[in-house]
Please model this.
Amino acid sequence: MSAASAVENLHAIRTAIADSARRAKRDPDAVTLVAVSKTFEAEAIRPVLEAGQRVFGENRVQEAQSKWPALRDAFPDLELHLIGPLQSNKAKEAVALFDVIESVDRPKIAEALAAEMKRQNRFLPCLIQVNTGKEPQKAGILPEEADAFLHSCRDLGLTVTGLMCIPPVDEEPALHFALLREIARRNGLSVLSMGMSADYPTAVALGATHVRVGSALFGSR
Ligand SMILES: *Cc1c(COP(=O)(O)O)cnc(C)c1O
Model:
C-alpha cells in the first residue's frame, strides 16, 4: 500500500470515529486512535506521523525497539502503546520503550512490570486485558476475576487506568464491548481500549476511549 493511501485511510478513519461519536452523543475528541503499526516498516509509518497521527500500537517489544527510537527522535511527542502479550524477561525493555502498557494479562507480568517501573522510576499507565470471550487460547483476565486482579495490580503499585479487550472473531463484538464497559464502570476506570479495523465504529458507540486500528489504516499484513 502506498504512503498516500495510508494517509487517506487515516483521514477516513478519523471521520468515521467522529461520526460514530456524534451519533452516540459523545465528544469526538474523547476517542483516541491508536494506529497499530505492527509488521509495517518505519517508511510506512513516517507519512502517518507527518500527517499528524501521534499514538501508535505495537505488539512485540523487539520489533518496536528496531523502529521506534529513530522515529521518536524525529517526533518526540509521539506515544507508543504495547498492545501484545509481554514476556517477563522483556519487561525491562518494554518499560523503557513504551508509554502505555495495554496488555497486563496475568499476575506474573503485573509483578514484573511493577518491579521494573520502580527500578527505572518510570511509572506508565497500564490497562488490564480482559478475555471477555473466555477463549482458552487468548490472553487476558477472565471477566469474573477482573476486579480482584485490578486490586492486586494496584497493591503492586501499578497505575491502572482502564481495560482492553479483543472480542472473539465469530461473535457480536457489541456484547463484549458492553461487558468491558460494565467492568470498567463498576471499578471507576475511565479508559476503554476496544475496537479494531472491523468494528471500531461500534466500539466508539459503546464508549471506547481508544480504538486500535491496523489493517484499515496501513493495509493488510
Ligand atoms: C493487530 C492488533 C490490532 C489491530 O487489528 P486490525 O484488525 O488490523 O485493525 C488491534 N489490537 C491488537 C491487540 C492487535 O494485536
In short: Residues 174 and 202 are 7 Å apart (CA to CA). The chain has a mean pLDDT of 97. Residues 3-23 form the longest helix (21 residues).
